[in-house]
């Protein structure tokens, strides 16, 4: 299971088509992957497991989200004002 | 790019634009034929001494001039819908680029592998070199590999803008807080120009878009160089 994830991350080109977000508006796609990355990190480190699989979500949100959005959200997470539920 | 006294579209640089071009030729031909026919009928009606005061109805011609327009409309609608669905096909892009509109410049982000971002300002007229195009050139172009499916995510930092490149057949509004996706393939190497297409303040006419399609090795060299310079 983790091998295939490693494969996918190794062969990563760009964010693939996501059927949950088939339309022009990809805002949610970016935000969802950002949330999923942080939630994955939180869940896996709570169980003391390897957080490497979470890298997929990070690659995807880095591809999709503007750098300024990511910087703003990172800052909000640091000072506790991030609006999403992680 | 556009040139003086241009009548038609710019040469297509993507498959979708080629389709749009041909469809436009088809629709325009239908429109011209109908207009020529109507003009002929008008001239014929006006320039005859014959009169006919006794026709009350005529089933045959009523049927013809109802069915024929319906058929013509279908002949326009079918290719149109074909292209519409073609544009919506699921494609698997090789590269994702973010184009963010600001007042008054574009910034491009290539973040699939490293964090490459740069601004693209118009070259002022007094700084143009001979042979460069007024109000169209930019200091940093959006370089892409040719013949690769590219995904562009368009957004804005402040007010509404619109990212348009006519020869690729693309126009996508840049809305603050929203990521609008468009995709294209550049079928040939070259430089493709566009201009901001949503009024955004004083310098709305002076924030052009320049896309440069190059072979993959050149693209890789360019992106390495841009990362070093940043």
UniProtKB/TrEMBL annotation, chain A:
InterPro entries: COX6B-like, CX6/COA6-like_sf, Cyt_c_oxidase_su6B. Its main location: mitochondrion. It is found in: Mitochondrion. It holds the Pfam family COX6B. Disulfide bonds join 30-65, 40-54. Gene3D superfamilies: Cytochrome c oxidase, subunit VIb (1.10.10.140). This is Cytochrome c oxidase subunit. It comes from Anoplopoma fimbria.
TrEMBL record, chain B:
Its cofactor is Cu cation. PROSITE patterns: COX2, COX2_CUA, COX2_TM. Its main location: mitochondrion. CDD domains: CcO_II_C. It catalyses: 4 Fe(II)-[cytochrome c] + O2 + 8 H(+)(in) = 4 Fe(III)-[cytochrome c] + 2 H2O + 4 H(+)(out). InterPro entries: CcO_II, CcO_II-like_C, CcO_II_C, Copper_CuA, Cupredoxin, Cyt_c_oxidase_su2, Cyt_c_oxidase_su2_TM_dom, Cyt_c_oxidase_su2_TM_sf. GO terms for cellular component: mitochondrial inner membrane. Residues 92-225 form the Cytochrome oxidase subunit II copper A binding domain. One of its GO terms (molecular function) is oxidoreductase activity. One of its GO terms (biological process) is ATP synthesis coupled electron transport. The chain crosses the membrane at residues 27-51, 63-85. Keywords: Copper, Electron transport, Magnesium, Membrane, Metal-binding, Mitochondrion, Mitochondrion inner membrane, Respiratory chain, Translocase, Transmembrane, Transmembrane helix, Transport. It is found in: Mitochondrion inner membrane. Residues 1-91 form the Cytochrome oxidase subunit II transmembrane region profile domain. The keyword Magnesium applies. It is a multi-pass membrane protein. Binds a copper A center. Component of the cytochrome c oxidase, the last enzyme in the mitochondrial electron transport chain which drives oxidative phosphorylation. The respiratory chain contains 3 multisubunit complexes succinate dehydrogenase (complex II, CII), ubiquinol-cytochrome c oxidoreductase (cytochrome b-c1 complex, complex III, CIII) and cytochrome c oxidase (complex IV, CIV), that cooperate to transfer electrons derived from NADH and succinate to molecular oxygen, creating an electrochemical gradient over the inner membrane that drives transmembrane transport and the ATP synthase. Belongs to the cytochrome c oxidase subunit 2 family. This is Cytochrome c oxidase subunit 2. The gene is COX2.
């Amino acid at each position: 299971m983790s091998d295939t994830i490693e494969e996918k991350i190794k062969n990563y080109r760009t964010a693939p088509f996501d059927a949950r977000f088939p339309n022009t508006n990809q805002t949610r796609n970016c935000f969802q992957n950002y949330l999923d990355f942080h939630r994955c990190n939180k869940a896996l480190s709570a169980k003391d497991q390897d957080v490497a699989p979470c890298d997929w979500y990070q690659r995807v949100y880095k591809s999709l989200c503007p750098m300024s959005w990511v910087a703003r959200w990172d800052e909000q997470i640091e000072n506790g004002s991030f609006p999403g539920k992680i | 790019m556009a040139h003086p006294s241009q009548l038609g579209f710019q040469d297509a640089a993507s498959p979708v634009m080629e389709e749009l071009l041909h469809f436009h030729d088809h629709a325009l031909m239908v429109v011209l034929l109908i207009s020529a026919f109507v003009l002929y009928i008008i001239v014929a009606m006006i320039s005859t001494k014959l009169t006919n005061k006794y026709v009350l109805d005529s089933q045959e011609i009523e049927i013809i001039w109802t069915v024929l327009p319906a058929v013509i409309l279908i002949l326009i609608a079918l290719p149109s819908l074909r292209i519409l669905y073609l544009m919506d096909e699921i494609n698997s892009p090789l590269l994702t680029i973010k184009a963010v509109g600001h007042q008054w410049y574009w910034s491009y982000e290539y973040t699939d592998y490293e964090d490459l971002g740069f601004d693209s300002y118009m070259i002022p007229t007094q700084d143009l070199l001979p042979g460069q195009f007024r109000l169209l050139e930019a200091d940093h172009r959006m370089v892409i590999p040719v013949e690769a499916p590219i995904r562009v995510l368009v957004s804005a930092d402040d007010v509404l803008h619109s990212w348009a490149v006519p020869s690729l057949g693309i126009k996508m509004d840049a809305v603050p807080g929203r990521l609008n996706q468009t995709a294209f393939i550049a079928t040939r190497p070259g430089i493709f120009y566009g201009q901001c297409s949503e009024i955004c303040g004083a310098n709305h006419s002076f924030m052009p878009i320049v896309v440069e399609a190059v072979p993959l090795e050149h693209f890789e060299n360019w992106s390495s160089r841009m990362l070093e310079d940043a």
